[in-house]
Specification:
eight-stranded mixed β-sheet, single chain, alpha/beta
C-alpha cells in the first residue's frame, strides 16, 4: 500500500489527463491563450523575453539564471512551525530596513517531505532563488518564505487506502492551512508590508496557490501560478487578486487545458488574469516563467487594496 506522501506525489507528478477527464465529465477544453473576450483585452501582458521558447537565445537565459543563482539557497535559514504537526520552512531575510514585501512560494511534488531541503531544490530553484538575485534584492528587497509539506497543499481524501492518487476535496488543504499560519507568524514577527504579500507555486504548488487565494480572498497582493495541477478550485477565487498563469502547451504531466479552463472561468467571472502559454514547453514551464525579465517588476508593482 502506498503512503500518503507517495499518493500525493503521484497526483502532483503523474500524468493527470485521463484522471481529470474522468473527474470532470462533460467538460470540453477549447479556450486558446489568445482569447478575445473583453476581460482579456483589458490586461496587457508585460513584454516577454525575445526569442521563441525553445530558441538558443531563450534557453541561454535559463542557463544564465542557473549559474547566477547557484548557492543562493544557502541564504535561507531553516525554521519550523508547529500546530497539528510540524511544518518545516525556509526563510530569507533581506538586509534592507523598513516595511518590506513578503513572497510565499509553494513547492511542487518534488519538494514533498519534511527534510526542509527539497523544497529549495530541483525545479523549485527558479521560484525560490529569483528573488534573492543581487540585482533583484537591490531594487526590490523582500522576505521570502518557502514552507514544505509532506501531504500536499490542496484538500485530499486519504480515507480510502487504494492505489493511485487520492481524491481532491473542496476546502482549504491541510498543507495550505499550515502555510497560511506561517505567513501570519512571519508578518507579525517582522516588518512586513501588509499590502505587498505575494503567493506563487508550481504544479502541485500551483494548485496550492489557487487553494489559498480562494480560501483567503483579498489577502494577497498578487498570485503567480505555473502549470497548477488539479484541484476543486475553478479559477474564480478572490477574483480581484492580480494573477499571472503560465503553462507549456506540450505539458505531459498537467494538461494545458487545466490552465486554459481556469483562466477562461476567471475572465468570465470578471477577473483580469494574465496568461502566458509557451509553444513546445513541457511541464517545467517554471524555467521560462521565472526567467522572464519583466516578471519581478510586475509582481512588486502589485499592491493590495484596503480589503481585509
Amino acid at each position: 500500500m502506498m503512503t500518503r506522501r507517495e499518493a500525493v506525489r503521484q497526483l502532483g507528478s503523474a500524468s493527470a489527463g485521463a484522471w481529470f477527464a474522468m473527474a470532470q465529465p462533460g467538460v470540453h477544453y477549447f479556450i486558446t491563450p489568445n482569447a478575445s473576450d473583453a476581460a482579456a483585452k483589458d490586461e496587457i501582458t508585460p513584454p516577454l523575453a525575445p526569442g521563441a521558447p525553445m530558441s538558443a537565445e531563450r534557453m541561454a537565459l535559463i542557463e544564465a539564471f542557473k549559474k547566477e543563482s547557484d548557492g543562493l539557497e544557502m541564504r535561507f535559514e531553516a525554521r519550523t512551525h508547529k500546530n497539528d504537526w510540524v511544518m518545516p520552512y525556509r526563510l530569507f531575510r533581506p538586509k534592507a530596513a523598513g516595511k518590506l514585501p513578503l513572497v510565499v512560494y509553494l513547492h511542487g511534488s518534488g519538494g514533498l517531505g519534511d527534510d526542509n531541503l527539497k523544497q529549495l531544490g530541483l525545479g523549485n530553484i527558479f521560484g525560490t532563488r529569483v528573488w534573492l538575485l543581487p540585482e533583484n534584492q537591490k531594487r526590490f528587497p523582500c522576505y521570502v518564505v518557502v514552507p514544505q509539506t509532506d501531504r500536499g497543499w490542496a484538500q485530499y481524501d486519504f480515507s480510502e487506502k487504494t492505489e493511485g492518487p487520492p481524491k481532491v476535496l473542496p476546502g482549504l488543504g491541510e498543507g495550505s492551512r499550515m502555510a497560511l499560519e506561517i505567513v501570519d507568524a512571519v508578518r507579525h514577527e517582522f516588518a512586513i508590508d501588509e499590502r505587498r504579500i505575494y503567493v506563487m507555486g508550481q504544479s502541485m504548488g500551483g494548485a496550492g496557490t489557487w487553494n489559498v487565494i480562494t480560501h483567503r480572498p483579498q489577502f494577497f497582493a498578487a498570485a503567480l501560478i505555473c502549470c497548477g495541477s488539479i484541484s476543486t478550485e475553478d479559477g474564480t477565487g478572490s477574483i480581484e487578486t492580480p494573477l499571472w498563469n503560465f503553462h507549456g502547451d506540450s505539458d505531459k504531466t498537467v494538461p494545458v487545458s487545466v490552465s486554459r479552463e481556469r483562466v477562461a472561468a476567471r475572465r468570465k467571472a470578471g477577473g483580469r488574469p494574465l496568461y502566458t502559454e509557451y509553444a513546445g514547453v513541457d511541464h517545467n514551464v517554471w524555467e521560462w516563467a521565472f526567467t522572464e525579465p519583466e516578471l519581478v517588476k510586475w509582481i512588486f508593482t502589485q499592491r493590495r487594496g484596503n480589503q481585509h
